[in-house]
Amino acid sequence: MHEVDMTKCLLLAMQDWRQQHAPRIPTVQAVHLQVGDFTCVEPDQLVFTWQAAVQGSWLAGSRLAIESVPLVGRCVCCGERYSPQAEQAYRSPCCDQPMEEIVSGRELKIRSVDYTLAAKQHSINDSGISNQPTPVALEI
Amino acid sequence: MHMPLEDSLGLNLLAANDHQAEHNREHFDAWRLLCLNVMSSPGAGKTSLLEQTLSALSTDLAMAVLEGDMTTQLDAERLEAVGVPVVPITTGRACHLDAAMVSGGLKLLRQRLDPADLDLLWVENVGNLVCPAEFAVGEHRKVALLSVTEGDDKPLKYPVMFREADCVLITKTDLLPYLPVDVERIEAHIRQVNPRCTVLRVSASSGEGLEAWHAWIRRQLQQQRAMAVAVSTAAATTPDLVSA
Fold first, then answer.
1. Tens digit of pLDDT for each residue in B148-201?
2. Per the CB < 8 Å rule, is A108 touching B12?
3. How far is the C-alpha of B125 from the C-alpha of B134, rounded, in Å?
4. Alpha carbon of residue B222 to chain centroid
5. Which chain B residue's Cα is nearest to A96?
6. With 90 as the cut, is the pLDDT of residue B209 above it?
7. Which class is B16-233 in CATH?
8. What are phi and psi of B185, to 5 degrees?
9. How many Å lie between the alpha carbon of B61 and the closest alpha carbon of chain A?
10. pLDDT digits (tens, 9 = 90+) for A9-41
11. Could you give the ipTM of this predicted complex?
């Protein structure tokens, strides 16, 4: 049940995010994650542990919304994108090549947060209103 | 008015662990040692291989082990018997080591020795083919073991672990004559999910393949040292460039 430890990591990141608003405390409606299919994360278990973990905390009542990202490989031989399957040993159907390059499916990302601060409703995401083109990692 | 919270988005879910892992690695680099994270399912032979490897390499390399074990210190006792310092990290019910646990292990290790005197630090992870793959501890290389008794389908069933590994050791090859298992097929499946890793066949009992394994370790050590020299040279020359 490593989703418990992953939830702890997520809570630390959220805690850090909250500090940016101090002394105000944002009311969070939802935290949106992207979880790749080629990771060791079981989305349902993550949602379950989140619900248990946020009870009684400043995040109580918030929802964890998980968008699954499919595993996509790129054939090293012809460049074709394909959907690697365990049953086919992840090989490319076009040229029968091993899974060298992964285009997507390894994501474990905090995508966005829906929250309210004071009276105003915010919804932010990493493709929109940022004045910095590259997201900067938080110091935990 | 927008608060600058956009900066926090696009974060890795495991950022808290990754930051601690990066912090651990900075220590490893400052101490000029190579850290290897050894992972496998329970019973694949991590401890036996380490026993053998520690005795073989301790003639000329200074090593220590951070030993992850869920509830016991049995593995730590076995390795300590070889004469190499071992710090047991009992994880309780956690099924993997994380960067904070390794950091705690390092504090204990520093009470016993100066890590700058080490060439190599081993992290023996908890036996598990799933989550250790996702939790970095600051290691320079990941080593995954797969014993021939586990079957040739495991690289396909637990692909993330074998994808993440820099070196995969197919262990217990001395048992091959007694098993209906095709070692070529095991190796082919590993290469399907990770065409770039080194795959070695070894037996801690018979000694098969161990020379190649030891040579791999020494190569990583050389590469790490060369990188450390390059970094310190760059750091030494950068102020000149700035002042010029």
1. 999 999 999 999 999 999 999 999 999 999 999 999 999 999 999 999 999 999
2. yes
3. 12
4. 16
5. B192
6. yes
7. alpha beta
8. -70, -40
9. 34
10. 999 999 988 988 888 889 999 999 999 999 999
11. 0.83
CB contact under 8 A, A2 and B2: no
- Indicate yes or no: CB of B14 within 8 angstroms of CB of A33: no
Q: Which residues of B touch A136 (CB under 8 A)?
A: 7
Cβ atoms < 10 Å from Cβ of A110: 23
Rounded Cα–Cα distance for residues B176 and B172 (Å): 8
> What residues does each domain of chain B span?
16-233
What is the token pair recorded at B6?
């956009």
- pLDDT, tens only, B17-57: 999 999 999 999 999 999 999 999 999 999 999 999 999 99
Domain boundaries for CATH 3.30.2320.50 within chain A: 1-13+26-70+105-125
Question: Chain B: nearest CA to A84, how far in angstroms?
Answer: 10
> Best residue in A6, A8, A9 to probe B by mutation, most B CBs within 10 Å?
A9
* Cβ neighbourhood burial of B26 (10 Å; 0-12, 13-18, 19+): exposed
Of B96, B134, B195, the CB nearest to A39: B134
Tokens of B12: 């890795």
Specify burial of residue B130 (Cβ count, 10 A radius: 0-12, 13-18, 19+).
middle
**Is residue A83 within 8 Å of residue A70, measured between CB atoms?**
yes
The topology under which CATH files domain A1-13+26-70+105-125 is hypothetical protein PF0899 fold (3.30.2320)
Are the CB atoms for B91 and B70 separated by under 8 Å? yes
B244 contacts: CB under 8 Å, gap ≥ 6: none
The pTM for the full model equals 0.87
B77-118 pLDDT, tens per residue? 888 899 999 999 987 777 899 999 999 999 999 999 999 999
User: What is d(CA A42, CA A1) in angstroms, rounded to the nearest whole number?
Assistant: 9
Chain B neighbors of A140, CB-CB under 8 A: 15-16, 19-20
